[in-house]
Amino acid sequence: MALVQNLADFRATNVELVAHIAFANAKYANNSYKITRNLREFICESAFLRIFIAWETFVENCFVDYLLNEPSILNNRPAKWVNPISKDHAQEIIIGNQRFMDWSNPETIRKISQIYFHQGYVFNTSLSAIHNDLMDLKTIRNSAAHMSSTTASKLDGLSQRILNNTACVNYTAYKLLFSVDPRSSIINQTVLERYLQLLDVAAEQIANG
Question: What mean pLDDT is predicted for residues 117-128?
Answer without folding.
Answer: 96
